[in-house]
Amino acid sequence: METKQFQAESKRLLDMMIHSIYTQKEIFLRELISNASDAIDKIYYKALTDENLSFDKERYYINVAADKKNRLLKITDTGIGMTAEELENNLGTIAKSGSLAFKTENESKDGHEIIGQFGVGFYAAFMVADVVTVISKALGSDQAYKWESNGAEGYTITPCEKDTVGTEIILKIKENTEEENYDEFLEEYRLKSIIKKYSDFIRYPIKMDVTSRRLKEGSENEYEDFVEEQVINSMVPIWRKNKKELTDEDYQNFYSEKRYGFDKPIKHIHISVDGAIRYNAILYIPEKTPFDFYSPEYEKGLELYSNGVLIMNKCADLLPDYFSFVKGMVDSEDLSLNISREMLQHDRQLKLIAKNINKKIKSELQGLLKNEREKYEEFYQSFGRQLKFGVYSDYGMHKEELQDLLLFYSSKEKKMVTLDEYVSRMPEDQKYIYYASGETIERIEKLPQTEVVADKGYEILYFTDDIDEFAIKMLMAFKEKEFKSVSSGDLGIDSDEDKNNNESEENENKELFEAMKKILSDKVKDVRVSKRLKSHPVCITADGEITLEMEKILKSMPGNQDVKADRILEINVHHDVFASLKHAFEKDQEKLALYTNLLYNQALLIEGLKVPDPVEFTNDICKIMV
Ligand code: ADP
Ligand code: MG
């Protein structure tokens, strides 16, 4: 009998399989079952057009059987089978789809991991078997053939006996080695779990003999083992079912079965698209932030199926970073099983699906915001930060997309509001969207800087998240209204009269302010008359792009120790304290220094900043008490 050599490319793949060091050896079963399912599909499609052929669903199935004693694992199907020629062409040569993926991957460094993740086809059998035997009888043929190979030495094809049409693949499972346990591929429970994991939604029943225990008939305490054929896979995936037939509970069960999360999702999105691109997807918006969500360990992504077969656990390309919280799966018939990660990235179909999904998530969130505000706020509590991060990242590329989804706490409404809501109730004379930053709502509420804006009757957005100000700086404006910090130099609310007043006050007190500036030396850039204070004597604001809040945040990041906002000490010239300052300036320079330092430190405290020398500060207070 002639032993034929594998075609060169196939041999390379084979070598990799035989000497495989891949961790996910278990995928061999997924590959063989997928092939079996494809073979049944082929009969099915033939039956659709050939009236001599009927497709009797009962007769089509896949069987998996382990023979521990002889170390044999057998995968049988009632599919279309292969002729001798087909055995030669299909199994002696690497299959078209797999070949390209393999070639590119084999040259890349992380090829190993990729083999574990993606379809590798029939040869995957050699990861776990020393000898692979394929017995097949093709539809319409009288003769069956046996293809056999131990990998390295090539293969043989000989005529053999087989009654029914279909294929039987027999694997002689390798002996255990020190590093590898191959026995597990003969264990019932292990095989069952591999089938469940990868092939649960294969459309045909995958049958297996399963041993269970039962009470012996007529006995009350004696048990016996019995063997029973079971269908292991659930066949019809929930995502292929009609939405109308499914309840909220079904979706919730799927969420927990799949371990997408331990919470109860806020919303599920079931998508079935049947057009230029065909896919089904079930997506979830979780309720709670996963514990590692805001850490670098968190991996975004959706499960990716190709026609019911899982090909990737976390396909990151399906989700933009700003929607990284979305969980779920996508199944498309248009994706090949034999697809590599590199190819996925360039896959046009996948890109289209991703775009589609992105749109859908956005519109679902908008719907939630519009119709189920409470739920949306709950969602926002968990993942709003990620949306704001999305506005800020990639140089603001996605800001238009996301701005409608943002919420901020409103000084007026005492709750979260959208930018649109804010702008729509702005009085005619209000030029800007005002905001104030601080650690908590309570603290911002008491900030002296907010007084004038609030007095004007204008709404202020409170920024308590460290990303807020950065995101808003990226946004710059919403519906042509610019954002303005209540601490910024020009608040845009002075009348001309106010401006004149301010100027004359500034001139009148020029020398006093110069003296104070000198006392504070490099601590402040300037001392000025405040236009925003009403009941408080002083405050600190910042000149320029970096605000005091931003300084705090940037400083807390490594390498940013030198970041500093330009500080301006603002004085309320209508406050009683100012009279004392003036008096001291004229009569007692030492007192002026004392008062200036005290006021400066007070302003720092109000702002939530550290007083540089607390001992000196308390000593100063004591001085005015005696
Ligand atoms: P792919 O499934 O991507 O084509 P494989 O290496 O898994 O690549 O399989 C190679 C080919 O062998 C298949 O395309 C098919 O024609 C044939 N084949 C494999 N297993 C079976 C089977 N159980 N029944 C019929 N044909 C099969
Ligand atoms: Mg295959």
TrEMBL record:
The name this protein goes by in its record: Chaperone protein HtpG
Region of interest (A), ranges: 1-341
Main location class: cytoplasm
Keyword vocabulary terms for this entry: ATP-binding, Chaperone, Cytoplasm, Nucleotide-binding, Stress response
Location relative to the cell: Cytoplasm
Pfam families per the UniProt record, alphabetical: HATPase_c_3, HSP90
HAMAP family named in the record: HSP90
Region annotation Disordered: where it falls in the sequence: 487-508
Assembly with partners or alone: Homodimer.
Biased composition (Basic and acidic residues): 498-508
Known role: Molecular chaperone. Has ATPase activity.
SUPFAM superfamilies attached to this UniProt entry: ATPase domain of HSP90 chaperone/DNA topoisomerase II/histidine kinase, HSP90 C-terminal domain, Ribosomal protein S5 domain 2-like
Keyword GTP-binding: no
